[in-house]
Amino acid sequence: MTLTGNMLIGQQAITGSREAIRAINPATGTALEPAYLGGTGEHVEQACALAWEAFDSYRETPLAARATFLETIADEIEAIGDELIDRAVSESGLPRPRILGERGRTCHQLRTFARTVRAGEWLDVRVDTALPERQPLPRSDLRQRQVPLGPVAVFGASNFPLAFSVAGGDTASALAAGCPVIVKAHSAHPGTSELVGHAIARAVKKSGLHAGVFSLLFGSGREVGIALVTDPRIKAVGFTGSRSGGIALCKAAAARPEPIPVYAEMSSINPVLLFPAALQARGESLAQGFVASLTQGAGQFCTNPGLVIARQGPALDQFISAAADLVQRSQAQTMLTPGIFQAYEAGVGSLLELTSAQEVAAGVRGNTPNQCQTHLFVTQARDFLADAALQAEIFGAASLVVQCADDHEIRQVLEHLEGQLTITLQLDDADLESARALLPVLERKAGRLLVNGWPTGVEVCDAMVHGGPFPATSDTRTTSVGTAAILRFLRPVCYQDFPDSLLPTALKHTNPLQLRRLLDGQREVLENA
Ligand code: NAP
């Protein structure tokens, strides 16, 4: 397909009129064609009007048809072939194998949501049948199901140009829930966004759905983004990006006459806790695993291990020395955008200026544009506790080791942490009791706790939680990865004493969708299940 530089409002290609956005190949610093003229409030108005028009028919699509639609999007993305891979590589600077893997993950995600939609468990059907003879008062027939919130605004993320962008997890879960989606494309990868946007638009058409089920807008966050979030027809927002961007959207959504939820995934330093027996027994291999996780993708993962916590002593010294050796030998890698590179350099620069943190190693310096040089720092627990700046996210391959005097100080450091997406526990059998004692504080701090692994790499599955207390996310009750992400875009409705003919199909007395309902307090066991 020839890239056009146009937005998509439903099936219509529309040219913007604001300042041109051009992708920059971060590996070379060169601007890529075509230019994408930014949208205006008028374009937001058109896309929202169309999405609202589409909502009532889309929300009633039979589960099988909606599932097939999601699978068709995946098929259409795969059918783009190398053009999508080549464009995503040149717009992101990410290596080809990583982009190939990301396309696989994106399509797997869409197909997983298709399976979820078909199964219908997310409708969470609850039935309390009428008790006309109950004393002192009879009970009505009460039936509950989940319904979609309405049109959703999605902000594509820079660090996953496919899996967290136009057809990423936010879009897939909102469409699965029955919500039309309007994507505000990330300005770092407009060509990739256009290609994927057209794939979704083709799937909309092939599936015979209303054109307003999907639109794609380009433009600045402050104009197009805020106009979207404040449009009365938008009922929820999905976002992955910076803390300041996420907070700005939360504030705009809360200030509306009708406030709406913003599911923003923002900032996490993903602490790794090294327990004494594990550190003693396998410090060298822990250092290898840690540096591999730290440097993967130039550290541009929301789950990058930006903090290590351990008790000071010879075993920790050996770990730091082995990690420093590996960091020194780590090659520079291209970062996603000049802006992200500059933010990384500024974050590392701030740490270098502090007397409370010492640099123990820096990786190989790059000699091409926007190269991330790995950095490893150490600090003492008392300094970490005294200075909030030491737990600010540095997006990239930089990490800080916090040396603690004893278990009490480890607990103090954990209590002092902001909310996190993940906390990793490296432990051996002899560490189990210490780990158990810390579990209550760890559960309060993070959405995912993992043992003897590394936080980078997030499985798309039913049990995944990619969320956590603020500032990891703006809503600690949710996940943006995995099938539970659908729950963000639903709300319950109760139907009291409805005649069967008026009930939605999912709630009818004969249970025609064969859903496992909660019937009079008991989970139904279905004969064919
Ligand atoms: P970003 O600056 O937050 O931008 C993400 C999206 O939000 C863009 O579409 C942007 O629009 C919009 N936006 C940003 N600020 C806004 C505001 N005040 N009002 C309305 N819309 C706004 O994130 P980024 O460009 O991807 O990367 C910048 C930094 O974000 C990184 O250095 C890193 O610190 C952090 N980040 C974190 C994660 C994570 O997973 N935790 C992932 C990616 C990035 P524009 O097109 O106008 O920029």
Can you tell me about this structure?
- This protein is α/β, with parallel strands linked by helices and 529 residues long.
- It folds into two domains: 8-23 and 41-246 and 479-487, Aldehyde Dehydrogenase, Chain A, domain 1 (3-Layer(aba) Sandwich), CATH 3.40.605; 271-451, Aldehyde Dehydrogenase, Chain A, domain 2 (3-Layer(aba) Sandwich).
- It has 14 helices and 25 strands.
- The chain has helices at residues 41-58, 63-80, 82-92, 96-119, 169-177, 190-206, 221-230, 243-254, 276-295, 314-329, 338-353, 381-386, 407-416, 432-445, and strands at residues 7-9, 12-14, 18-21, 24-25, 30-31, 36-38, 126-128, 142-148, 152-155, 181-184, 214-217, 236-240, 262-265, 271-274, 307-311, 333-334, 357-362, 371-372, 375-380, 398-404, 420-426, 446-451, 490-496, 518-519, 522-523.
- β21 (420-426), α14 (432-445) and β22 (446-451) form a beta-alpha-beta unit.
- α1 (41-58) packs parallel to α7, α2 (63-80) packs across α6 (190-206) and α3 runs antiparallel to α6 (190-206).
- The longest helix has 24 residues, at 96-119.
- NADP nicotinamide-adenine-dinucleotide phosphate binds next to α7, α8 and α11.
